[in-house]
Each structure stands twice: as structure tokens, then as C-alpha cells.
Amino acid sequence: MSSSPFATASARGTGLAGLVVGLCWLAVLFDGLDMFIYGSVLPHLLATGTFGLTADQAGDLGSYATFGMLVGALTAGTVADRIGRKKLMVGCVTLFSLASGLCALAGGVEVFGSAGPSRASASAVCCPRRSAWSPTTPRAAAPPSPSAC
User: Fold this and answer.
1) At the N or C end, where does the chain have fewer CB atoms within 10 A?
2) Which residues touch 92 (CB under 8 Å, ≥6 apart)?
3) pLDDT tens by residue, 69-89
4) Eight-state DSSP code of residue 142
5) CA-CA distance, 116 to 64, in Å (whole number)?
6) Cα–Cα distance measured from residue 20 to residue 3, given in angstroms and rounded to the nearest whole number
């Protein structure tokens, strides 16, 4: 009895789907961890006077992140249609990683504040992409893209 080529393609597809789900969950983890860390570290930053941060500046930093998410969410569809969902996801994960690294190395509130919107924008772009790639969602229900996966 010989195995059909469809059986091996199905097994490969299942493994690939598992990899995609795993990578998407990592993106979700780091996305949520980003805002959680800011919220949990903020009282310490204010109490110790790190960066000379005032309560007003701390609120502004949180607002910058929200504004960055707005920009990312509004532009995600257009950019995905132009360059493709895969390239967009890889680019946004890379931007998120670089901006997070810049925040970690920031020597002042200016650098920290300028990297925040980029980090949040990349995070907001990744959210709908992760949902669209869920293996339980039928392909026809995923958002259309000229360079479909």
C-alpha cells in the first residue's frame, strides 16, 4: 500500500500551522508583556525620579503608545494590500523588537518616548494579522490580500 501525496502534504500543513500558531502566540506574549511592564514599572520610575520623569510626562508616554496603536491599526490594511501580509508581519515584529531594544537602552525620556509610538504601531499592526492566520478560521473568511499566504 502506497501513501498518497495528499497525506504528506496534510502532515506538512499541520506542522506548518503549528509553527505559525506558536510564532503568533509569541508575538501576542511580547505584545502584552510590553504594556504590562510599562504599567508595572511606572510607579517605580516616578518614585525614584528615573529620567526626571514627572506624572504628566508618564501620562504622555502612555498616550503616545495609544496614538501609535491607532496609526498602526488604521494603516495595516493598506500596507498589507501593497506588500503582503507575511512581509508586513515580519517587518512589524522586527520594528517592534528594534523599538523595544531602543527603549531598553534609552538614557532619557526623549528616546524612550520617541520609540514608544513605533513599538505600539508595530504591535497594533500585528494583532489583526495573527487573528487572520488562525488555522481554525476558514481561508475564505480571512481578509483578502493580493499576495495571499
Assistant:
1) N
2) 72, 122, 123, 125, 126, 129
3) 888 888 888 888 899 888 888
4) S
5) 7
6) 26
